[in-house]
Amino acid sequence: MSSPSLEEVSAEVIVCRKCPRLVEWRERVATEKTARFADQEYWGRPVPGFGDPAARILVVGLAPAAHGGNRTGRIFTGDRSGDFLYRSMYRTGVANQPTSVSRDDGLRLLGSYVAAVNRCAPPGNKPTPLERDACLPYLEREIAALRRLRVVVALGAFAWDGALRALAACGHRTRPRPAFGHAAAASVGPYALLGCFHPSQQNTFTGKLTEAMLDAVFERAVELAG
């Protein structure tokens, strides 16, 4: 059986209604909005992955932000985490510009693709295990569709766990199960898995994750991707 295309996966993602709690939350946020974006029309649907179909590097996050990806319709777009992430991707040569504010802002990813474990913004940024498992098949299918993929960068412990689960479902397991940590590295089948603290404000404002630390992870990813 042939692997699905990224376009086919994205088309399925954006109409997904598997998780009632997440459907209710993402749509309520899109209706109630927040004051600074009150004049904007929110996406309010699941957010598909985004990037280069020939990507050798896959970046995996937790889920769209309520007023970021859930508003703009593109992962890590329109929020502070995305600002921090895409600046680093630009500096390390895997994005064509350092900013990401909307789906039509001209951002192109170069040899890289960005996705998430969960595709709907969850209350409190905390999907349940059932919600994680319901969404993981989309990540599995993206991995299968990215035929040149060599490196997976997991942003945070939730993404690390999700990436390992998705890779296992694709037939690639590693024992003992590697533990998450910043700059942690593991070989999983034909892929290199790299860990990185999530570029949330909680980490970037406190200095737990600096620009230099994030750049180093992407520099290593580029090196391993060949």
What does this structure look like?
- By secondary structure, the protein is α/β, with parallel strands linked by helices.
- It has a single domain, classed as Uracil-DNA Glycosylase, subunit E (3-Layer(aba) Sandwich), CATH 3.40.470.10.
- The protein is built from 8 helices and 6 strands.
- The chain has helices at about 5-15, 20-30, 70, 80-90, 130-145, 155-170, 200-205, 210-225; strands at about 50, 55-60, 110-115, 150-155, 185-190, 190-195.
- Strands 1-3-2-4-6-5 form a 6-stranded mixed β-sheet, with helices on both faces.
- It is globular and about 45 Å long.
- It starts with 5 loop residues before the first helix and ends with a helix.
Per-chain topology:
Elements lengths: L5 H8 L6 H13 L17 E2 L5 E5 L7 H4 L7 H12 L20 E5 L12 H17 L5 E5 L1 H13 L15 E4 L2 E6 L4 H4 L6 H15 L1
Parallel strand pairs: 2-3, 2-4, 4-6
Antiparallel strand pairs: 1-3, 5-6
Helix pairs in contact: 1-5, 4-8, 5-6
Find the structural class using helix and strand composition: alpha/beta
Cα radius of gyration in angstroms:
16 Å
Apparent shape: globular
Written as H for each helix and E for each strand, in order along the chain, the element string is: HHEEHHEHEHEEHH
CATH architecture: 3-Layer(aba) Sandwich
Alpha carbon gap, first and last residue:
29 Å
Total DSSP helices: 8
Query: Can you summarize the main beta sheet?
Result: 6 strands, mixed
Low-confidence stretches: none
Beta fraction: 5-15%
Cross-sheet strand order for the largest sheet: 1-3-2-4-6-5
* CATH fold field value: Uracil-DNA Glycosylase, subunit E
* Average pLDDT metric: 96
